[in-house]
Fold this sequence. Notes:
Layout: H1 2-12, H2 17-27, H3 33-41, H4 50-63, H5 66-78, H6 85-97, H7 101-110, H8 116-128, H9 132-144, H10 151-164, H11 167-179, H12 186-198, H13 202-210, H14 217-230, E1 239-244, E2 247-252, H15 261-276, H16 293-296, H17 304-315, E3 322-326, H18 332-344, E4 349-352, E5 357-361, E6 364-365
Parallel strand pairs: 3-4
Antiparallel strand pairs: 1-2, 1-3, 4-5, 5-6
Helix pairs in contact: 2-4, 4-5, 4-6, 6-7, 6-8, 7-8, 8-9, 8-10, 9-10, 10-11, 10-12, 11-12, 12-13, 15-17
The protein binds zinc ion (2 copies).
Amino acid sequence: MAFVLKACSAIMALEEGQQVHARILRSGFTLNPYVQSSLANAGVGIEPDEVSLVGVISACAMAGALDIGKWIHAYINKRKIDIDLELNTALVNMYAKCGCIEKAKEIFDEMPVKDSKAWSSMIVGLAIHGLAEDALEVFSRMEEAKAKPNHVTFIGILSACARGGLVSEGKRHWSRMLELGIEPSMEHYGCMVDLLCRGGLVDEAYNFALSTPSPNPWEKMSHVRKKMKEKGIKAVPGCTSIEIDGFLHEFVMGDWSHPEAEEIKRTLKDVSVRIHSTGYEPCVSSVLHNVDDEEKENSVSEHSERLAIAYGLLKTKAPAAIRIVKNLTVCWDCHEVTKIISKVYNREIIVRDRVRFHKFVNGTCSCRDYW
Ligand SMILES: [Zn+2]
Ligand SMILES: [Zn+2]
């Protein structure tokens, strides 16, 4: 039962979660067949409505809970619940954020009507998968369809250009965004700085960063970080979740409260022995990479993603992929190790970090070591 509660709390911690979840519990519709039957036994039996379904699917998207999301999708089909624009958009977003971009595309293409939100969800989904060309293609279709792009659309477009190294395309879309009267946010500026840096235009990137509205957000950020340090406030701790049989398990570095902690430690040891036999040496200095401070200071071998991957190796069998979701950016060392694990254990590992997906297969990553 502990894991049922864990899954519930993970869902509840999310945006609309609390209220939605209360409604689901009341309606007898819940996240797992096991929970569902136990609630059905309790004698509640009201049908879930579309609003609560959109909420739960969005929660699955945020948590990266693919199995639960798929289960709800199947439930919707089984019950012949009418899938409207909003529900379809939620499904596109869920599949994209849970790593199934093909399924997201399939649903999106079959949507009879699409609004700005639907188009944007697809574009952002393609962008986080590093599919820059596809994102731009969908964007031009969006313009042809006369749907109005919004600030989210441009976060998708600009980040797609940045990841794809498409400098002139990115600049063109930046101008287009300003033309449309969309006020650039910190995120848009971040994408542009990223884009220019990747294009080797470091000076331009620097000037661009300086051109951001005053007070300069970059300065402000480092100022805030410094203040937090002074006051002893810790940055957000790294946390990685993995879904096993419809239950979310959350791992935080140094937290060994998981009931299977001993087995996880043994698996970690096995991983360590096997990756070292390939000649791997840990690289503690991740200074050159954009790693969150909190993570940098800690022992890399126990980063939360390592625990989640170890748990995945322990609880699942090939050819099932190991899918994990991390709230921060993956550090260089964990990225290297995950590549080696994918080869040594012959397992596909899909990591969603704060900004993008990494798909590790046979010793390489889909990001081509660029994130
Ligand atoms: Zn790490
Ligand atoms: Zn990668």
